[in-house]
Amino acid sequence: MADQAEIRGRLPHRFPMLLVDRVLSVEPERSLVANKAVSCNEPWYAAGPTGHGDTASAAAAFGYPGTLLVESWCQSAGVLATWESPNPDVLEGDVMLFGGMSGVEFHHPVLPGQVLEHRVRQERRVGETVMFEGESLVDGRTVMTVGRITMAFRPARVLRPETS
Q1: Residues 143 and 108: beta-carbon distance below 8 Å
Q2: Which of 52, 107, 108, 118 is catalytic?
Q3: Which is a Pfam family this sequence falls into (predicted)?
Q4: Which residues are CB-contacts of 143 (< 8 A; sequence separation ≥ 6)?
Q5: For residues 32 and 20, what is the distance between their CA atoms, to the nearest angstrom?
Q6: How does pLDDT run across 114-134, given as a tens digit for each residue?
Q7: What angle do CA 68, 72, 75 make, to 5 degrees?
Q8: How would you label 61-86 residue by residue, b for 16+ Cβ within 10 Å and e otherwise?
Q9: 52 flagged as catalytic
């Protein structure tokens, strides 16, 4: 449905913080399904442990950081929010701002080699503020649920500091 070129045309994020690989389906202003392949070649694994261990210690050592899991899901929500009017230039137009989150729960660790499936649903839109809910899955198993995430759009010109 949407590859890297189209995703980059909607989000300002770039390596190493572009955390959406592919959009599988989108229903504008309603829902989106996107993938993120987790790889041990990502920069946050560079200083990680190299030893062997059982499954529990591997999950603790190599589990994808929860903050990045949330960030990846939020970027997917950003793709949905900008589907009808993309603007990846944060210096012009509207800037996408993270407002807050509630009801986020982590259920299972995500390990390198797994593919995240982010399911995002637009719950409500009030003016330039959008609320989303959803979940992330690996092989059909829920690894994270999102009760609500709020995003706002503000004109870049009002966010820039005034120069004298």
Answers
A1: yes
A2: 52
A3: FabA
A4: 69, 106, 107, 108, 109, 110, 116, 136, 137
A5: 12
A6: 999 999 999 999 999 999 999
A7: 135
A8: ebbbeeebbbbbbbbbbbbbbbbeeb
A9: yes
CA distance 32 to 157: 29
All domains of the chain in start order, with CATH: 4-159 (3.10.129.10)
C-alpha 68/C-alpha 17 separation (Å) is 9
End-to-end CA distance of the chain: give it in Å, rounded: 46
Read off the amino acid at residue 53.
G
pLDDT tens digits along 58-74: 667 788 999 999 999 99
Number of Cβ atoms within 10 Å of the Cβ of 121:
16
